[in-house]
Amino acid sequence: MRKLDDDESDLNVSLMIEISMFNKLVTAAFMPKIRKSGLTLPQVHVLMILFREKRPLTVSELIEFTISTSGNTDVVVNNLIKAGLVLKKKDKTDKRKRLVELTEAGLEKASKEYKDYMVSVVKVLSPSSTAQKQELFSEFKKLNKGIRENF
Q1: How far is 75 from 36, CA to CA, in rounded Å?
Q2: pLDDT above 80 for 2
């Protein structure tokens, strides 16, 4: 592992602070809409992921997308099942796997929440150009991969 000089160390710490601050500010900006939806943040995440992917997902895939634990993901999915927004069924090709998919009510709710979410996303990301967003996306993909491989 290479030794970092003080300037690079300061930059790394400053970058981590900015990333953390951005995450907190985005969450704070979205929370009023999430509360209004009657769902929790993790429930909205699961609905948005299922809506975006346009296919049923295994619980393992949801865990990977949400970076959550299996226990927490199960609670979120079970609460969404109780709300009639998702259902869980056996995978036809592998009976050990359970697939989570949107119900009609879940699709309707996810569609509405997604539209509201996108209005906020556009506002949050409006200071950046398309090229800057693509560059950020690429950099975060690399950083996420590095974290997954090293921790």
Answers
A1: 21
A2: no
E strands, 9-106, in order: 57-58, 86-90, 98-102
Contacts 24+ apart (CB under 8 A), 89-92: 89/56, 91/58
Cα(29)–Cα(102) distance, integer angstroms: 26
The amino acid at residue 107 is: L
Cα 87 from Cα 102, distance rounded (Å): 6
> What is the rounded CA–CA span in Å between residue 65 and residue 47?
12
Q: How many CB atoms lie within 10 A of CB 117?
A: 19
Q: What pTM value is reported for the model? A: 0.81
Residues 113 and 37: beta-carbon distance below 8 Å: yes
Between CA 18 and CA 11 the distance in angstroms is: 10
Please determine, for residue 57, whether its predicted confidence score (pLDDT) is greater than 90: yes
List of domains in the chain: 29-150 (1.10.10.10)
Span 17-45, pLDDT tens digits = 999 999 999 888 888 888 899 999 999 99
Q: How many helices (H) and strands (E) does the chain have?
A: 6, 3
Instruction: Return d(Cα 6, Cα 4) in angstroms, integer.
Output: 7
